[in-house]
Every structure is written in structure tokens, then in C-alpha cells.
């Protein structure tokens, strides 16, 4: 994960109950931070700490995030909600070789990735690390 949080990369945090996560990212990394939440008040509370804020319930939020991330996608997505909608959003905005982290998601204890983890945009194969509920998105060049 250290390689995905290098200066100049993009991190998306979904769910501003995770204001502490935003503060850690800001204090410890040089990443561009995009905050998403369904509540405008939650976004207002972190607006001065992040580079972009978007209402995650908006129909075009994935396009807004992609544009803010230079049309490449987010190198790191931290989904603090873990709903099917936010997991699908995470899969839509993560960059090739990017990482999705979903802390606290405990519905699966097998080594096989659960079906609710999204397929990544343009994904041909994926590497899932279920202990941390992560999907690292990898694409082959063609």
C-alpha cells in the first residue's frame, strides 16, 4: 500500500464518518484526496482538508471522481461504508493496479473473494487479499 500513497497519487475516501482517515492521509502522505459522502454537511466538515468533495449519491459521481483524478482513476480507495453501492462505486473509480480497502467488512471468512467486491474497471484479472478485504486491480496490456 505504501506505493499507492506516494506524493501525486490520488486517494478516495468514501464515507466521512472517516474524518480521521482524511486527517491521517493529509498528515502522512502527499496524495490528492477526494472525499465522498451522501450528506453535504459531512462533506462541508472536511472540505478544507481535502482537494475535492462530491456527493456520492449523485448519478454522475464516478465521472466527477475520474475527472478529478486526471481520468486515470484513484490509486487508493478507502470505502468506510461497505454497502453494495459504495463497493460498486469504488470499483468504477479505482485505477489500474490501484487498491480498494474496506475495513471492518466481515461477511466472508473464506480465502475466496466475496461476490460483493466489485470487478475493477477494465479488469482482466484481480488479486484479492481477503484478510484486509482488498481488491488490487490489475489489468493486462493489450
UniProtKB/TrEMBL annotation:
InterPro entries: ADH-like_C (IPR013149), NAD(P)-bd_dom_sf (IPR036291). Residues 18-116 form the Alcohol dehydrogenase-like C-terminal domain. Keywords: Metal-binding, Oxidoreductase, Zinc. Belongs to the zinc-containing alcohol dehydrogenase family. The keyword Zinc applies. Its cofactor is Zn(2+). It comes from the Bacteria. The keyword Oxidoreductase applies. This is Zinc-binding dehydrogenase.
